[in-house]
């Protein structure tokens, strides 16, 4: 690998810019009208690990008999740059999925960041978040752990292992070490717990499973299950399989994302 000489001031290469790519500025890039369905909850997302969290929560609420958790689900194709459209940016200025609008509130309430959405839904419907202080704090500990730890798996390990244009030893070693440390942490925590935060299924499980559960099951990055030797994490494996077998989780994985535009647009 060739050495990289740091410039005194970093500049973005405009020739690399594309409609769907990242660049060092925020805000909308084009006008966009998002469709709005009949349900109170409008979800604009994609079937990525972060996006799956919200559909899992909503399907679990519906399975629990919460009819008010009915939702309309729309596909934000990040490869096409849908996240930079004006309507989506109005909901989430950070231009990341998932985003949700609760139209049962007046005025309508915009939500973004998966942890914020799950916490909001748990408090709104009084499900999957304990009321006693100790249990609630433990659930939130793990919710916020995931929001801080997850980027090492997705933006770190996943990027350099699966998406980078060439294999680079230093970043792969660095992020593989941290990913395996996190997997080992979860494996140890689950040695004497049924679920991440204790004896009850909670939003902590819904936050962590789409990343770490699916990673343990070999469903995130091709070949990563062998590369990471995930079979060694027996407790994590058992938990991942248990969550995967939940009907609401399967319903979330099979959820139909409605188009926001004509396919030939």
From TrEMBL:
Pfam families noted in UniProt: GST_C_2, GST_N
Family matches, as InterPro entries: Glutathione-S-Trfase_C-like, Glutathione-S-Trfase_C_sf, Glutathione_S-Trfase, Glutathione_S-Trfase_N, Thioredoxin-like_sf
Gene3D superfamilies reported for this sequence: 1.20.1050.10, Glutaredoxin
Protein origin, superkingdom: Bacteria
Domain GST C-terminal span(s) in chain numbering: 132-265
Span of domain GST N-terminal: 42-129
Name of the protein in question: Glutathione-dependent disulfide-bond oxidoreductase
Gene name linked to the record: yghU
């Amino acid at each position: 690998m060739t050495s990289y000489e740091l410039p005194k001031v970093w500049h973005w290469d405009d020739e690399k810019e594309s409609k769907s790519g990242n660049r060092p500025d925020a805000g909308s890039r084009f006008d966009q009208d998002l469709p709005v369905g009949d349900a109170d909850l409008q979800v604009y997302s994609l079937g990525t690990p972060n996006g799956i969290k919200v559909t899992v929560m909503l399907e679990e609420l519906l399975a629990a008999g919460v009819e008010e958790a009915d939702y309309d689900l729309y596909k934000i194709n990040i490869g096409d740059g849908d996240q930079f459209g004006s309507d989506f940016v109005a909901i989430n200025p950070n231009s990341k999925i998932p985003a949700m609008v609760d139209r049962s509130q007046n005025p309508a309430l915009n939500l973004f960041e998966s942890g914020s959405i799950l916490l909001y839904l748990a408090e709104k419907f009084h499900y999957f978040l304990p009321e006693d202080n100790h249990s609630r704090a433990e659930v939130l500990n793990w919710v916020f752990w995931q929001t801080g730890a997850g980027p090492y798996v997705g933006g770190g390990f996943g990027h350099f292992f699966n998406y980078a244009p060439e294999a680079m030893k230093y970043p792969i070693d660095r992020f593989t070490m941290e990913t395996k440390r996190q997997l080992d942490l979860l494996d140890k925590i689950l040695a004497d717990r049924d679920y991440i935060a204790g004896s009850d299924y909670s939003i902590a499980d819904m936050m962590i499973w789409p990343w770490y559960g699916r990673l343990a099951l070999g469903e995130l990055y091709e070949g990563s299950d062998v590369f990471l030797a995930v079979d060694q994490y027996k407790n994590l494996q058992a938990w991942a399989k248990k969550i995967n077998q939940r009907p609401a989780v399967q319903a979330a994985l099979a959820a139909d994302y409605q188009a926001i535009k004509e396919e030939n647009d």
